[in-house]
């Protein structure tokens, strides 16, 4: 299975946004 640089960047960006959203939810809860 070959993962291109663009796909890897999208995956990393997705996890980063998910982490930001989770942190925001925990702070405002």
UniProtKB/TrEMBL annotation:
The chain crosses the membrane at residues 6-24. Keywords: Membrane, Transmembrane, Transmembrane helix. This is Membrane protein. It comes from Paraburkholderia fungorum. The lineage of its organism: Bacteria, Pseudomonadati, Pseudomonadota, Betaproteobacteria, Burkholderiales.
